């Protein structure tokens, strides 16, 4: 059996260790600049943003320890005198964002919607309306968010389908939403985070480009 140089074994061990570290990091957050958004509309929206992050939220316990990548919290809409103290009313999440861990401490907000509300979506005229009656479960939460630097803010998050909503930190206001049409039976579901003012700037820029286009068209007709 031929001898294998120790230096080669050491180098091989180093690269295996490095790949394991990369795999662990990518499991938490997808590598920047390499993520492909399956939904075409969301992909076009992201391309118009100046700054955004793709993150992998985790469900954790009150001490920040990992529990699951299953993010949904659906609890009964029954409203008792001590709803806020019920075990199914609390949820904790952790998100690695801009090299810091964000810890969300959220409580179910059962009074946000009436028990008899009706959701109506319209696509064109009333013939394209889709009506959905209320359910006996609630998945809208309010609470706080804190980063690893002890900066604290507020959060309003829906867990009906992933994490969708808004949170505020001292450095700005943020939106979060799931990556649409992402197929993953196991592991983390990627989410998109971007600042609210980035959306406003993008809309203003888009509006300005449309005005410039129409001005150019009018000028061409005048020639």
From TrEMBL:
Q: Which Pfam families match?
A: Pep_M12B_propep
Residues annotated as signal peptide: 1-27
- UniProt domain Peptidase M12B propeptide: residue ranges: 53-145
- Per the record, the major location class is secreted
Question: Which is a Gene Ontology cellular component entry for this protein?
Answer: extracellular region
Give the UniProt subcellular location, in the record's own words: Secreted
Classification via InterPro entries: Peptidase_M12B_N
**Transmembrane residues, as ranges?**
none
What UniProt keywords are attached to this protein's entry?
A: Disulfide bond, Secreted, Signal
Question: Is Secreted there in the keyword field?
Answer: yes
Q: Does the keyword Signal apply?
A: yes
Which protein is depicted? ADAM metallopeptidase with thrombospondin type 1 motif 12
Gene name, per UniProt, is ADAMTS12
């Amino acid at each position: 059996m031929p001898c294998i140089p120790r230096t080669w074994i050491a180098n091989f061990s180093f690269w295996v260790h490095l790949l394991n570290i990369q795999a662990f990091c990518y499991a938490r957050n997808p590598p920047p600049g390499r993520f492909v958004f399956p939904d075409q509309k969301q992909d076009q929206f992201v391309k118009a943003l100046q700054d955004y992050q793709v993150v992998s939220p985790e469900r954790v316990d009150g001490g920040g320890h990992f529990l699951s990548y299953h993010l949904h919290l659906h609890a009964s809409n029954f409203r008792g005198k001590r709803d806020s103290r019920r075990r199914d009313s609390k949820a904790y999440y952790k998100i690695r964002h801009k090299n810091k861990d964000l810890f969300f401490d959220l409580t179910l907000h059962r009074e946000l919607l009436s028990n008899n509300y009706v959701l109506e979506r319209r696509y064109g005229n009333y013939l394209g309306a889709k009506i959905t009656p209320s359910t006996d479960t609630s998945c809208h939460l309010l609470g706080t968010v804190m980063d690893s630097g002890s900066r604290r803010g507020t959060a309003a998050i829906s867990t009906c389908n992933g994490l969708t909503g808004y949170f505020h930190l001292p450095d700005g206001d943020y939106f979060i939403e799931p990556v649409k049409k992402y197929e993953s039976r196991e592991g983390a579901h990627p989410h998109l985070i971007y600042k609210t003012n980035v959306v406003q700037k993008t809309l203003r820029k888009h509006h300005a480009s449309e005005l410039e286009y129409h001005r150019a068209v009018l000028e061409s007709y005048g020639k």
